Amino acid sequence: MKKTILAVLVAATLGEITMAKEIKATNLNEKNEFVQPFELGELNPYGKFFTGTTYLNTLDDGSSGRKVSIANVTFEPCSRTDWHTHSKGQALVITAGSGIYKSWGKRARIIEPGDIVKINPDEKHFHAGGATTWMAHLSIMDANDNKTVWLEKVSDEEFKNAVAEAIKQPNK
Predict the structure, then answer these.
(1) What is the DSSP code (8-state) at residue 48?
(2) Coil/strand/helix, residue 157
(3) Cβ(102)–Cβ(165) under 8 Å?
(4) Which candidate, 96, 94, 150, 88, places its Cα nearest to that of 119?
(5) Which of 26, 29, 48, 50 has the fewest CB atoms within 10 Å, i.e. is most exposed?
(6) Radius of gyration of the chain (CA)
(7) What is the pTM of this model?
(8) Phi-psi region of 106 (alpha: psi -120 to 50; beta: other; left: phi over 0)
């Protein structure tokens, strides 16, 4: 009986390890360092509003009367959104990696898992992976009439300056 229980525990543990490796394998960078809690998703269909490669996994589109949309967005190193605004604002919850958030006219912020970025209505901003790091966040927005206005591209120089000036800031 003890051998049977031990065999079941070992099999279960090995199964969990194998499952964990399979889950990790879907969300790894080339150095096997990047792991996130959600599927990577598809190449971002809004890619024309981004520089570099990003992925989108829509978790909830706000249909059926729900009032928010939630999407997991994953950024490869140096990839970034264009400057943009949201008419009703946005919240970002960082789930993996390390990246940059920059609001127009303010100092850039280092964003890491557990950070929450509260973006006011019509606040001009961009978000990005780090210079050498992947980053993933949940984008949470009002699903009803929250217009995103895409503005100019974030230049390589603007991105480099944001990376250089970025500091860790508390959630507010």
Answers:
(1) G
(2) helix
(3) no
(4) 88
(5) 48
(6) 19
(7) 0.80
(8) beta
